[in-house]
Design goal:
Shape: globular
CATH topology of the largest domain: Rossmann fold
Number of domains: 2
Helix content: 25-40%
Strand order of the largest sheet: 10-11-9-13-15-16-17
CATH architecture of the largest domain: 3-Layer(aba) Sandwich
Largest sheet: 7 strands, parallel
Oligomer: single chain
Number of strands: 19
Length: 452
């Protein structure tokens, strides 16, 4: 089984791992762990420590916390493999024989979330452009210019995106990132799921600056072209932390699109196990997601395609399929509706596992758009809905950086202004409703007027 091992080495080693200008290897962090085949190609990642605010409970993540990467606080994550038939024995031995081992966590397979079913597109991307009030957003100066928009997926083919859009798009290669096993240059990967996601973000934020993070192209023994390991996402998020920390405090803006998730419990430890991912807010990836939100980034995840009406064939969670970071309380979890506003049958329904009220809201999907899978195929799944919502978030950040409107405040505004589809404000099908750009614009105007 693939696992992530959390260690507490010396402060000097932690400082070297946390410093983006330094280079630390697996050998620097863990010089031999009995029964574990360590992955020397994986660059160790610093995991921030949750720190309670004054008066907070130091043993709870449910209260307001900050996240520290100081050498005295942070831990370090490495990746390795333990033989399945020795798993339980080796896990108990690791903690007892190695004092610096803090925990051993699941490293589940993560996969893209296109769609199940073969229905024809409902409308096209120009309908989505109209539904997002892109013309009005532009009048308000909200077009994404200067805002970094990270697409964590299978890589972007910028030439294809530009050809279908009919105009130029911006991609920042220097702030992009790839796993060590991925060969290729940012913006020059094969046309696939990541190109669809990039295209769909640019519907609402045409002037955004794309960052290409092809974590789903990471290769592992027996892996496929569109799956990776959660540890690759941990490394990607560590890179994004350096991206946002490098920005001026008063103009911080980073939007992170994640159209992927874990479909099966078979690669995970069971709920209740300390190494579990799907239900465990203390899993290192769930901690690093919360820390990036705390640093000022807007993190969006697709809710998944395990809806009861038309579940994807890979869906193996028997219930509550919005799991792990896709259900994190500090991310925007996005379900899908077509351009008529009707929930698509594959859009995963709540409740979520880390937070009960998931998905947060729905955005548009199953429309003719990027042509990533052929001219007649729709941009579909919550994989398309998530970047559509990410585009609107990016547009807002053009004039409303995190210093002016925190990620939590923006999530609240989006949910409060959503087009409610129930009588109770929240339901497990639509969340708080369908994303409403006109309502967002009106709310921002009121907020600006009060601040004037």
């Amino acid at each position: 089984m693939r696992v992530m091992i959390q260690l507490r080495p010396s402060a000097d080693v932690v400082a070297a791992v946390a410093d983006p200008a330094a280079t630390a290897t697996v050998a620097d962090v863990a010089d031999g762990l009995q029964g574990v085949v360590l992955d020397s190609a994986f660059t160790p990642v610093a995991v921030p420590r949750p720190m309670p605010r004054p008066g907070g409970d130091p043993l709870s993540l449910a209260h307001d916390v900050s996240y520290s990467l100081a050498a005295a606080d942070a831990t370090v994550l490495v990746r390795g493999e333990v033989a399945d038939d020795e798993l339980s024995t080796r896990l108990s031995m690791l903690s007892s024989q190695h004092r610096n081992v803090v925990g051993v966590f699941a490293d589940p397979v993560i996969e893209a979330s296109p769609t199940c079913g073969g229905d024809a597109p409902v409308g096209d991307w120009h309908d989505v452009e109209r539904l997002l009030d892109v013309a009005k957003l532009k009048e308000e100066g909200l077009d994404g210019e200067g805002v970094a928009l990270a697409v964590l997926d299978s890589g972007i083919n910028l030439a294809h995106v530009e050809r279908v859009l009919g105009r130029k798009a911006t991609l920042d290669a220097k702030r992009s990132w790839s796993p060590s096993s991925v060969k290729g240059r940012p913006g020059e990967f094969e046309v696939d799921h990541g190109s669809m996601c990039a295209f769909d973000t640019l519907i609402g934020a045409p002037q955004a600056t794309l960052l290409d993070l092809p974590l789903l192209l990471s290769r592992r023994p027996g892996g496929s072209a569109l799956d990776g390991l959660l540890s690759d996402a941990v490394a990607a998020y560590a890179h994004l932390r350096t991206v946002i920390d490098a920005q001026p405090a008063d103009t911080k803006a980073l939007v992170v699109n994640n159209s992927w998730g874990s479909f099966s419990p078979h690669w995970d430890f069971p709920p209740g196990h300390p190494g579990n991912y799907s239900d465990n807010p203390a899993h290192p990836f769930n901690l690093i997601v919360a820390a990036l939100d705390g640093a000022g980034a807007d993190v969006l995840f697709a809710a998944g395609n395990c809806g009861r009406d038309c579940p994807d064939g890979r869906c193996a969670f028997p219930e509550r399929p919005i799991v792990g970071a896709n259900s994190h309380p500090r991310v925007l979890s996005v379900g899908g509706v077509d351009t008529r506003g009707e929930r698509v049958g594959y859009s995963s329904q709540g409740p979520g596992r880390l937070a009960v009220r998931k998905p947060d809201l729905c955005a548009y999907t199953h429309f003719a758009g990027s042509q990533a899978f052929g001219a007649g195929s729709p941009d579909s799944g919550t994989s398309a809905a998530c970047p559509v919502a990410a585009g609107l978030v990016t547009a807002v950040r053009t004039a409303w950086p995190a210093s002016r409107l925190s990620p939590a405040q923006l999530r609240s505004l989006l949910c409060r202004t959503a087009d409610d589809r129930s009588d109770v404000g929240f339901d497990n099908d639509y969340g708080y409703g369908v994303i409403d750009a006109a309502g967002v614009i009106a709310a921002l105007r009121r907020k600006a007027k009060r601040a004037a």
